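Team,

Forwarding the record for the chain on the shared tracking sheet. I've put the sequence and predicted structure together so nobody has to dig through attachments.
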Amino acid sequence: MSAVLISNLEHSYTPDSPVLKGVSVDVATGEIVGLIGLSGAGKSTLLRCINGLITPTSGSCMALGADVTLLSGSEKRLHRRRIGMIFQEFNLVDRLSVMKNVLVGRLGYTSAFLSCFHIFSKKDIDLAKYWIDQVGLSGYEKRKARDLSGGQKQRVAIARAMAQGAEIILADEATANLDVLTKDEIMDLLQGLARKQNATLILSMHDLPLAKRYCTRILGLKDGRITFDSTPEQLNDSAVADVLGRHIAG
């Protein structure tokens, strides 16, 4: 079953500069897909088309059975509850506690009035506590996000996405600002939680060795086009070098 089915997707921010050029890809439920490519290749734009943050210029983008390109604004907001996003810069509210940052993932299930006053149900709070524990931050609930290390902040971001009930998790260079050991810890965590929940992971990455270790499938994106689609074991070195502009060992 397809979690994401994209057909002939194109997007331009300006009329003469297309960022995505006829992208087509089918991602099955439960896959861990790495998107590799240089900055400007279109990776972030593709992720934002999947969760509806960007409306593409043309083509279709099916996510969890709905064509995101055809949804209204309110429909997109509801649909986005099922799609979690993890960012390179963590995208946390530094002045808020770990608990409140994770509860942000429940805002889509809470009335606008209650969310303005940070009032959440016991179910939401229990769910947030559960995922805080699952990412290894039990006891940090009251700690301000600004006082956490980079790896801890990314764990909070993962807990937020899982508390959201995400069936698809999109990660945009989520390990780029982390040291080597912390990168592996975060990828171990993402991989384990995704498998536990049968969630689909689509990760924008620069780190090819990391992608080869953790992804079930790797797509190369260059100048807005997918140039290869391969398992880690069958990667063609020349195709990878063409996408990244250099040969990479590992």
